[in-house]
Amino acid sequence: MTAARLRTRTELRGQRRPRAHGCWNHLIAAPLWPKHGVNLGTLLRTCDATGACLAVPRLPWVPEALAIGNTLRHRQCVHWVQGRVDTWLDRQRAGGSAVLGVELTDESIRLADLPAARRRTIMVLGNEGYGIPPEGLERLDVAVEIPMVGSGASLNVAVAGSLVLYKLAGLS
């Protein structure tokens, strides 16, 4: 058996599939009820890895959390949700976007059964305390659940969002 050889950064970049990335592309992660800044930083990094944008509410502490979380130190695709979250979600749906929530509901589909996004998709995330509130659940086209065998009821928002982003981006 031969030892594994690590690929260089140049090799890795050359082997990645090319992607056009512009603001408001087809995949948007939307942690609309955030509680912990560290989760936003992790999601920001995953958005870069999957070619997604991040949409967040303009709360006083969020810009600093994103600045700390921007470990790549280059401009990220971040958009601010102004005003009421439910109104923003209504506008996204009216504009033709699919709205998918990561939540445990009676109608949730399993992550393994989730197809890659074929049209502009907003992935909505709640928070660890109460998930997606009723005004968000009412606006979902579909909910996806991440099956678990451990004793916890759910994963943290950053981990759950990252798993679903990779699946929606067609990278898993």
TrEMBL record:
Keywords: Methyltransferase, Transferase
Example GO BP: methylation
Keyword Translocase: no
GO molecular function list: methyltransferase activity
Record domain tRNA/rRNA methyltransferase SpoU type: where: 35-166
Pfam families recorded: SpoU_methylase
PANTHER family: RRNA METHYLTRANSFERASE 3, RRNA METHYLTRANSFERASE 3, MITOCHONDRIAL
Identification of the protein by name: TrmH family RNA methyltransferase
Species this protein is from: Nocardia acididurans
Lineage of origin: Bacteria, Bacillati, Actinomycetota, Actinomycetes, Mycobacteriales
